[in-house]
Design brief:
- It is a single chain.
- The protein is 30% helix and 17% strand.
- The protein is of the alpha+beta class and 131 residues long.
- The strands form two sheets. It has a three-stranded mixed β-sheet with strand order 3-2-5.
- It is globular.
- The model has no long low-confidence stretch (mean pLDDT 92).
């Protein structure tokens, strides 16, 4: 999905935990519903753990989780309802086609997660600090 705050950025559904009792999987289900209108019903399957250093307005380190949300068919794609406060469009592309639409770091993360999904494994990714 194309981010409203940075039109050059393409993002997956996601966000931060909203309350102390929310789990990472609960956050995924909630954020996916808020940002796409789609309800995830599959069992949680972790694909990646990411580590991000403080960047911009973030003043602390951040750990993220990428989960497999299942296979989207045309019916799911047709039902996507974006939150206009967060995203302006959705695009479905082949993995290689994304290379020209995202930063090298984002494309690296995408390919690592896609590989973990195809192998049935989990990957760990660190983003180096920016200078």
């Amino acid at each position: 999905m194309r981010a409203t705050h940075n039109p050059a950025a393409w993002q997956w559904p996601g966000g931060n935990l909203d309350d102390p009792g929310e789990t990472p999987w609960g956050c995924v289900v909630r954020e996916c519903m808020e940002e796409t209108g789609l309800r995830i019903t599959d069992e949680p399957r972790l694909l990646a753990v990411t580590f991000l250093p403080p960047i911009g307005d973030w003043t602390t380190h951040k750990i993220g989780f990428a989960f497999d949300g299942g296979q989207l068919d045309q019916g799911h794609i047709n039902r996507i309802a974006l939150d206009p406060e967060e995203h302006t469009e959705v695009a479905i592309r082949s993995l290689e086609n994304w290379r020209t639409h995202m930063s090298a770091a984002s494309f690296h993360r995408l390919t690592a997660v896609a590989e973990a999904r195809s192998r049935g494994s989990v990957c760990y990714l660190e983003q180096p600090p920016t200078s």
